[in-house]
Specification:
elongated, Helix Hairpins, 3 domains, 19% strand, OB fold (Dihydrolipoamide Acetyltransferase, E2P), 9 helices, alpha+beta, 45% helix
Length: 438
C-alpha cells in the first residue's frame, strides 16, 4: 500500500498551525477516530551569550625572556672576558720528583700524601735481591781470603821459627818477629774493620733510638783503642822490617808470598765499600723540607730505575705568576698586597708582590686565550700569605685571576687620606683607570 505524501513545507513567518478538527484516520485499511491536537504555546527566545574577552597570547612572555637572555648573555661574556679581571696567572712551585737509582722492590713507605717532611727525612726504603746476593758473595770471598792469608802467614811463621832454631841466628829471629808482628797487624786491622762496620751500622740504629748512648760510647772507645793498637803495630812492623832487611835477605820472599793476599783483600774491601754505598742509595730521603704531594708507590711493588716514586713540594716555593700588560704592571710595586681569585675557592687569596720580571714574554697556554695571540706580557711573582701556604689551599697548575674591585668615590678619597695603613695596589690601579677614563 502506498504511503501518504509528506506535508508541505511552511513558509517562514507563518503563524501557529490551526487546531485540527477531529476526523477519521485511516491506517492500513481501518478507520480510527483522530484525537484533537491542542494548540502549541509560544515560548520566549533564549538570551544572547556574553561577548568573550580577548586573551593575550601566552608566547609573548617566553619570547621576551629569550630576548632578554640573548641580550644579557653576550654582555656577561664580554664583561667576564674584557672588564671583570685585570690579569690572569698560574700557581707554580718547585716540585722535586724522587726516583730510585736502581731496579728493586719497595720495602717500606714512610710517608703519606699531604704530609710535611723535614730535609733528610726517610721517605721510601728499597731493597734489591741482586745487590744483597752480591754483598753476601763479597763477604764470603773476604772470609776465604783472610783464611788463606792466615794460612800462608802461619806457614811463613813456622818456616821462620824452624830456621831460627836451626841457625840460631839473630837475623832469622828478626825476620820471624817481623812476620809475627805483621800477622798481628793484619789480625788487628781485621778487628778494627769489624769494629768500624759495627759502628756504621749502629749509627742508624742510634738515630732511631734502638741503641743506647752507653753501648755506642763503649763501641766507639773500643774502636779508638783498636786504632791506636794498629798504629803501634804498624810502627813495630816497620821497625822489624828494617831490622830484617839488614839481618836477613829472606824477608823479601815472605813479603812476595803475602803480597798477593794483601792485594786481593784490599780489592775486596774496596768493592764491598762501594756496594754498601749503592745499597745506602736505596733509602730515598727528602732533599729539602716540604710537603709530599704525590706518592706513586706501594709496599711490595717493583720500582724501576728513573720512575718517580715520591714528589715533594719545597717549602715556601709556591707562588703565583701573574701576567700583566705594561699599563697594568705599572700600577704594582714590590710589597703591594692584592687579592686574587683561584677557582674553585670562593674566598679571595691575598698575595704580596715579591718581584717583577725583567723582560716581556708570551702568556702560557693555560691563560693564553684571555690575551691577544701576539701579546707580550710582564710576569709578576706574587707570594701567598703563610696561612694560605700552610693550609694547602693552592694547587700547582691552578689558574689565578686578579678581579676588578669597585670603589665609591668617597671610599677612594678616604683611602687616599689614610697614609698610615699599607698601600692597596688594587685601589691604586682603579684610581689610575678612573683618571684615564676622565
Amino acid at each position: 500500500m502506498p504511503s501518504a505524501p509528506p506535508p508541505a513545507a511552511r513558509p517562514p513567518g507563518a503563524g501557529p498551525l490551526p487546531a485540527s478538527t477531529p476526523g477519521p484516520v485511516r491506517m492500513h485499511g481501518y478507520a480510527r477516530a483522530r484525537p484533537a491536537t491542542p494548540a502549541p504555546t509560544q515560548e520566549k527566545p533564549p538570551p544572547a551569550p556574553p561577548t568573550p574577552v580577548q586573551k593575550r597570547p601566552k608566547g609573548r612572555l617566553f619570547l621576551g625572556a629569550v630576548l632578554c637572555a640573548g641580550i644579557l648573555w653576550p654582555a656577561v661574556e664580554v664583561w667576564n672576558a674584557f672588564f671583570r679581571y685585570r690579569g690572569w696567572g698560574t700557581v707554580e712551585g718547585r716540585v722535586i720528583e724522587l726516583a730510585p737509582p736502581w731496579d728493586g722492590e719497595v720495602a717500606s713507605v714512610e710517608v703519606r700524601e699531604g704530609e710535611w717532611v723535614e730535609q733528610g727525612a726517610l721517605l721510601v726504603r728499597l731493597r734489591s735481591l741482586e745487590l744483597e746476593q752480591e754483598r753476601t758473595r763479597l763477604d764470603d770471598a773476604l772470609r776465604i781470603e783472610r783464611a788463606a792469608m792466615e794460612a800462608a802467614l802461619g806457614e811463613l811463621q813456622l818456616t821462620a821459627a824452624l830456621r831460627a832454631e836451626e841457625r840460631q841466628d839473630r837475623r832469622h829471629k828478626a825476620a820471624a818477629d817481623h812476620l809475627a808482628a805483621l800477622g798481628d797487624l793484619l789480625r788487628e786491622k781485621t778487628v778494627l774493620e769489624s769494629l768500624e762496620r759495627q759502628r756504621s751500622r749502629r749509627d742508624g740504629l742510634r738515630e732511631q733510638g734502638i741503641v743506647s748512648d752507653e753501648s755506642y760510647s763503649d763501641l766507639l772507645l773500643q774502636e779508638q783503642g783498636q786504632r791506636a793498637k794498629v798504629e803501634k803495630l804498624e810502627a813495630a812492623v816497620e821497625e822489624l822490617r828494617l831490622r830484617a832487611d839488614v839481618s836477613s835477605p829472606d824477608e823479601s820472599a815472605a813479603a812476595r808470598t803475602l803480597r798477593p793476599h794483601l792485594l786481593r783483600l784490599t780489592a775486596l774491601r774496596e768493592e764491598r765499600k762501594q756496594l754498601d754505598e749503592r745499597l745506602a742509595q736505596g733509602e730515598i730521603r727528602a732533599p729539602v723540607g716540604g710537603r709530599v704531594i704525590e706518592r706513586a708507590c706501594f709496599v711490595g711493588e717493583r720500582a724501576s730505575k728513573g720512575r718517580g716514586l715520591v714528589s715533594v713540594l719545597e717549602n715556601d716555593s709556591m707562588h703565583v705568576l701573574l701576567y700583566l700588560d705594561q699599563e697594568q704592571s705599572r700600577a704594582l710595586e714590590v710589597g703591594d698586597r692584592i687579592p686574587l681569585r683561584v677557582e674553585p675557592h670562593q674566598e679571595l687569596v691575598h698575595c704580596t708582590v715579591e718581584h717583577k720580571g725583567v723582560e716581556l714574554e708570551p702568556a702560557p697556554k693555560s691563560v693564553q686565550r684571555h690575551y691577544a695571540s701576539d701579546a707580550r706580557l710582564l710576569p709578576v711573582v706574587l707570594r701567598p700569605e703563610p696561612d694560605v701556604r700552610r693550609a694547602g689551599l693552592l694547587r700547582i697548575g691552578e689558574v689565578a685571576t686578579w678581579p676588578l674591585e669597585w670603589r665609591w668615590p668617597w671610599n677612594t678619597r678616604r683611602e687616599s687620606e689614610d697614609e698610615s695603613g699599607p698601600r692597596d695596589a688594587a685601589a691604586t690601579a682603579l684610581r689610575g683607570q678612573d683618571a684615564r677614563a676622565r
